[in-house]
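Session log. Operator J.P. requested a structure for one protein chain; no other inputs attached. Running the standard single-chain path with token output.
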Amino acid sequence: MAAAALVGVVAYFSLRASPNLSDIAWLPRGITRWLDSPAGSNIRTGIPFLFLGLISFLVRPGSLLSRIFIPVLFLLPLAVELAQFFLPRRCPDVRDVLWAWAGGSLGILIASLLHPAKPKQGSKNQEL
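Structure written below.
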């Protein structure tokens, strides 16, 4: 459920007519000013994907959702950038895809370090 909500937030911010977050009145000005700056705009795509990667530990290993979650995490940035071709004020950029993948990968790495996989019951590696 959290992943679906976060995907919705990513889609909303990525597919808005204007790429400037400072156009959104309810967002804090200090944050939007930094995110719209050249330094912030380079990594702002990776931030939500970092959180998507972090919640990957909520997905039970081996479940159908776990087999779908990781591919969606890596295909979503491609889909968003492709959709931006059809939005007049948006400019698709391969760097956004790379930042999203970097954020998602870092989130998965942190989640796996914080929540290591448990061995399956009956596994031969349980002897130790």
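Operator note: The helical segments are 2-14, 29-36, 38-43, 46-54, 64-84, 94-114.
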